[in-house]
Amino acid sequence: MLAVVALGALALGAALVWFLTVNGRKGPGGADTDLLARLYVLMEQETAAARTEAAHQRTHLAEMERVMTGRIEQVRTELAERLAGMAGSMGREQAEVRAAQAEALREMAEASARQLSAIRVAVTDQLHEAVERQMQTSFQRVLEQFSAMQTAMGEVRAMTAQISDLKRLFGNVKTRGGWGEAQLKAILDDVLPEGSYDSNVRLGPGNDVVEFAIRMPVRASTPPVLPVDSKFPTEAYERLLNAVDEGDAAAEKAARKSLESTLRLEARKIATKYIHPPRTVEFAVLYLPTDGLYAEAARIPGLIDEIGRTCRVMIMGPALMPALLRTVHLGYVTLALEERTETIARLLGATRQEMIRMDSVLEKLARNAQAMSTSIEEARRRTRVVSRRLRELDAPETEEMALNPEMEFTGPDTENTASGQS
């Protein structure tokens, strides 16, 4: 502030000097020169006062700066002392906290160790008990499985004996054929109606007997039959299965060839012995008792089609035979429906004849009724004439009535003609 006042005074002094210089150039002037001199003196005084005030202010500011510096040093000293005290107290507190934490951690470690020991002991006991129970259970299960295995081994031995018996059973050709024949008979009894087939029938001139002859559902006094014979080539089939199990391609090929030759031979025998039209149909059936045997026969390329084409023999298995028999059964159902239809047709024909006769009787009855109606109408007409005649008896008789009394009674001919036409 003092610097500003001093600068202002200097500026004002410079302006006065410039003004005096300018006025001095214009000419002497006593009043103006005195005024300016007084102003200049005033300015000098003001400048001196301002300088004095500035010096005083500067001294005051220096004193204040000294006082402030002292106070700041005091405050710094106090702050340093307080910070030192706080640092010491914090160090002591941190040491105490560290000691407390170390003690707490030690106690926690000891407690954890004790708990882990207790848990280890408990787990060990439980594991020991569980292992003992598991071992007992496993041992009991092993004993049960061993008992079951012994039982199964006994069953296997019994099954082996049964298989041996079955092999011996199927080793005999006649026994083998009897088993296939029994199976085929069960299928026939299950599908076909009763009395639709015969067993052990002689079809040809020789002594050859076919196992089953199915009567076909046709209209004939002696319907043709379908020969069905079962074959079970066990040897070739077993050789084929053994070769497949062993993975021997050459043996499998030879066994399949042997099976093919056996089936062709049996088909030719059936065609020669049992197909004799018109006693039989144009084909026969070779029945294989197992689906596995039929599947192996079907796997031989072209075997079934060729046998059917050349020998007129169809090869059937247990899965296909019921379908053929159901077709035959459907034929029986159709034949029964045709017979029932003919019976109904005959009944309708007889009914038609009876209706024709009834129509004749009704026609006669209508004619009689018409004649009776005519007679009744004539009687009514005669009654009306008699009534009119009786009414006329009360009136005076005229001359015409006296001359011809019967004309009035019989009535005119026009009425009689009309009644006759009606």
Task: Give the topology.
Elements: H1 2-26, H2 30-171, H3 173-191, E1 197-202, E2 209-215, E3 225-230, H4 234-246, H5 249-274, E4 284-287, H6 291-299, H7 303-310, E5 313-316, H8 321-393, H9 399-403, H10 405-410, H11 413-421
Parallel strand pairs: 3-4, 4-5
Antiparallel strand pairs: 1-2, 2-3
Helix pairs in contact: 1-2, 4-5
Low-confidence stretches: 25-29, 168-175, 398-422
Helical fraction equals over 70%
**Share of β-strand residues:** 5-15%
Q: By helix and strand content, what is the structural category?
A: alpha/beta
Number of helical segments with 4 or more residues: 11
Dominant shape? elongated
Report strand order across the widest sheet.
1-2-3-4-5
**Rg (CA only):** 74 Å
User: What's the CATH C level of the domain at 174-319?
Assistant: Alpha Beta
Profile the largest sheet: 5 strands, mixed
Which architecture name of the domain at 174-319 does CATH use?
Answer: 3-Layer(aba) Sandwich
Beta strand count: 5
What is the CA-CA span between the terminal residues?
166 Å
What is the H-and-E element order?
Answer: HHHEEEHHEHHEHHHH
Mean pLDDT: 76
- CATH topology call of the domain at 174-319: Trna Endonuclease, Chain: A, domain 1
Function: Involved in DNA recombination.
Family: Belongs to the RmuC family.
Keywords: Coiled coil, DNA recombination
Region (Disordered): 394-422
